[in-house]
Amino acid sequence: MVKIPSQHWTIPPLENGDRLNRYEFERRYNAMPSLKKAELIEGIVYMPAALRFKSHGQPHGWIMTWLGNYEAMTPGVALGVEPTVRLDLDNEPQPDAVLLIDEEAGGQARLSEDDYIEGAPELVVEIAASSVAIDLHAKKQAYRRNGVKEYIVWQVLDQTISWFYLEKGEYLDLPVDPDGTIRSRVFPGLWLAVEELLVGNMQRVLAVLQEGGQSPEHAAFVQKLASD
């Protein structure tokens, strides 16, 4: 007779659709070291399926290249890839990307003693298959309520990028300027050539970002971060 270690039966495994609070979610998650990704969204556990290359992996890589270059030119901000974010008791997502203003520079989120993000990052990015995904519904609601200032959702199959900004507690669409560029309101100089990103023209995407990095607004932002 094989004796089963007590942990295997005292701590239930995470299951897709479980309704838990954040503390129970973390307890079960930590008891499953082989689990790669699980999220708690509005009190419900979501365990995503394996990710495909063209519908997720490659777009994710392009987004990280864009944001990584902005981080390199902007001291005082920090980029994270799929970090666990403790938003509130019912929400602990792992966004595809977050861009933070450092706490020492006046950022609204902080790092816990066990190295998790607590609170709302200034910018969150999610790669979604289409407009029916959770990213544009339950997640969007959770991010809005917790004060994520800007939220980008790339709906890959729909060939659409939605960039929202928080205004008086509601998410509004950040407009595309006549030159085809979206310009962040929270991170000056974070400029996105939308159509170029959709087709994977990263050379042009990074050229437009470099223009943003050379703007007076970006220079003033870097100076402000250094003085806070």
The low-confidence parts are none
Q: Can you tell me the CATH superfamily of the largest domain?
A: tt1808, chain A
Total number of strands: 13
* Overall structural domain count: 2
Portion of residues within helices: 25-40%
CATH topology category name of the largest domain: tt1808, chain A
Detailed description of the structure:
There is one protein chain. The model has no long low-confidence stretch (mean pLDDT 93). Strand 1 (39-41) and strand 2 form a beta hairpin. The protein has seven helices and 13 strands. Helix 3 packs parallel to helix 6 (202-213). The chain folds into two domains: 7-46, no CATH class; 53-227, tt1808, chain A, CATH 3.90.1570. The chain is α+β, with helices and mostly antiparallel strands and 228 residues long. It starts with 6 loop residues before the first helix and ends with a helix. Strands 3-5-8-9-10-11 form a six-stranded mixed sheet. A three-stranded mixed sheet has the order 4-7-6, with no helix packed on it. The chain has helices at residues 7-10, 22-30, 53-73, 138-146, 194-198, 202-213, 216-227; strands at residues 39-41, 44-46, 77-81, 85-86, 97-101, 110-111, 117-118, 123-128, 150-155, 160-167, 170-173, 181-183, 191-193.
